[in-house]
Amino acid sequence: MALERTFSIVKPDAVAKNHIGAIYSRFESAGLRIVAAKMLHLSQEQAEGFYAEHKERPFFNALVSFMTSGPVMVQVLEGEDAVRKNREIMGATNPKDAFAGTLRADFAASIDENAVHGSDAAASAAREIAYFFTEAELCSRTR
Ligand code: RTP
Ligand code: MG
Fold it and tell me: Which atom of ligand 1 is least distant from the CA of 113?
């Protein structure tokens, strides 16, 4: 499997509960390297643009409202099979369905406040990374 990058967000609920370090530790333990990171308080426009694919869904307004409710950490993770590996570490969207030991099982309270975001495919990873970071901000340690 080739080296890959994925995009991740520690959502407002997990930042508020002081779980940034615990979540970063899970990434690192799984062999994913954090190659860029920053704290942001998303504007409504930023959150709407980021989740544009869900614009017509009934939960869209609640999702944007939650994502702008407090600061988030945005980061780029790099490693073998990074997109799939991160989704595995995260667990299912609804924490009730997430396997024990996943981030959402351990840190999420509900499907609406579910601790983390992770890109779902290589193409969305590239788009989401570019949404928040310039190429110069990515400190890859492998090239
Ligand atoms: P994310 O994009 O945040 O990593 O989550 P995901 O891929 O696991 O799930 P996705 O389908 O992309 O949905 C984005 C976020 O919208 C909320 N959601 N609510 N009430 C519902 O049926 C519902 N479905 C999705 C979740 O907070 C989800 O993380
Ligand atoms: Mg998604």
Answer: 27
DSSP labels for 59-124? THHHHHHHHTSS-EEEEEEEEETHHHHHHHHH--SSGGGSPTTSHHHHH--SSSS-SEEE-SSHHH
Residue 59 is labelled as binding a ligand: yes
Query: Which helix (H) or strand (E) is 9 found in, with range?
Result: strand 3-10
pLDDT tens digits for 1-10?
A: 689 999 999 9
Length of the chain: 143
The predicted model scores a pTM of 0.97
Give the ipTM of the model, two decimals please: 0.95
Instruction: Name all residues whose Cβ lies below 6 A of ligand 1.
Output: 54, 59, 63, 93, 111-112, 114, 117-118, 120
The answer to whether 11 and 68 have CB atoms below 8 angstroms apart is no
Check if the beta carbon of residue 9 is closer than 8 Å to that of residue 70: no
Q: Give the count of alpha carbons within 13 A of 26, CB side only.
A: 21
* Per-residue DSSP letter, 51: T
